Every structure is written in structure tokens, then in C-alpha cells.
Amino acid sequence: MNRTTTLIAAAVLLVVALYAAVHFSGRTTPQPTESPTPPASDSAPAPVAPAPATPTPPAPANPPAP
Fold it and tell me: Would you say which domain of life the source belongs to (predicted)?
């Protein structure tokens, strides 16, 4: 085998090795998401409850002396 044939064979072997490395690395397969988005519901969203009223502060037990 002369030098040119050896270089061509080495290049072909390198291309095949790179293809196999990429093919079997697993990077070409899509990864599943950790928390998939739930499907949208057809019903209307639940009504939002109003915030509870804040109670008035209690009056002091002993009024200040005049």
C-alpha cells in the first residue's frame, strides 16, 4: 500500500469512527422533560376568593392617665 492509499483508508476509518461515536453517544435522542406542562383544561378557571377583611386592632386595656 502506498502513502496515498493509507491516508485515504485512515480518513475513511476516522469518519466511520466519528459517526459511530455520535450515533451511540445518546446525544441525538431527545431527553424527556422533568415536569411536563399539564394539558389545558376545557373548563373555566375557578373564581378567586376575595381577601379576608383585616380586623381592627383592639382598644388598649388601660387608657393613659391625663
Answer: Bacteria
Range of the domain at 3: 1-26
Cell 502506498 found at: 2
DSSP class per residue in the chain: --HHHHHHHHHHHHHHHHHHHHHTSSTTSPPPPSSPPPPPPSSPPPPPPPPPPPPPPPPPSSPPP-
Indicate whether this model's pTM tops 0.85: no
Identify whether 35 is part of a domain.
no
Residue-wise pLDDT tens digits, 36-58:
666 666 666 667 777 777 777 77
